[in-house]
Input
Amino acid sequence: MSANVLEVKANLVKVRDGRGWGWAWVVDRCPFCGMRHIHGGGGRDDNPSDFLGARASHCKSRRREYNLIEKEE
Ligand SMILES: [Zn+2]
Output
């Protein structure tokens, strides 16, 4: 894990996909643009934790990289 990449907390949610449902990681408030971003978390049979880590932000203006971590309750 790079110390230079910002950590961003994400909530795991179930989403519908073409084959039924899958997982998604939701960033409520992006640290770069303030928007809500949704990142794929795999399909029903995947481990969503495998999709955490370095991801490209979904900012409209400029994509940057952040490190997704699971939000703890
Ligand atoms: Zn953003």
